[in-house]
Design brief:
With about 60 residues, this protein is an all-alpha fold. About 75% of the residues lie in helices and about 0% in strands.
């Protein structure tokens, strides 16, 4: 699952500012939340959006444990 980065990718990351890197990570996190919420919506169509987002964040928070 851990593929080596291509040299072009490494060069691109080195050119990025810390703020740009942080924005990229935040965007990826938000995308993960939206994807998880969409999956939960399929299983629980009656849940309100706030509950879907809460459960999506909670599931990602504890995903590594």
């Amino acid at each position: 699952m851990h593929e080596a980065l291509h040299p072009v990718q490494v060069a691109g990351f080195r050119r990025m500012t810390p703020a740009q890197k942080l924005r990229m990570v935040a965007d990826l996190y938000d995308a993960g939340i939206r994807l998880r919420a969409a999956g939960l919506r399929l299983k629980h169509p009656d849940w309100p959006t706030q509950q879907l987002l809460f459960e999506a964040r909670r599931s990602l928070l504890y995903a590594g444990t």
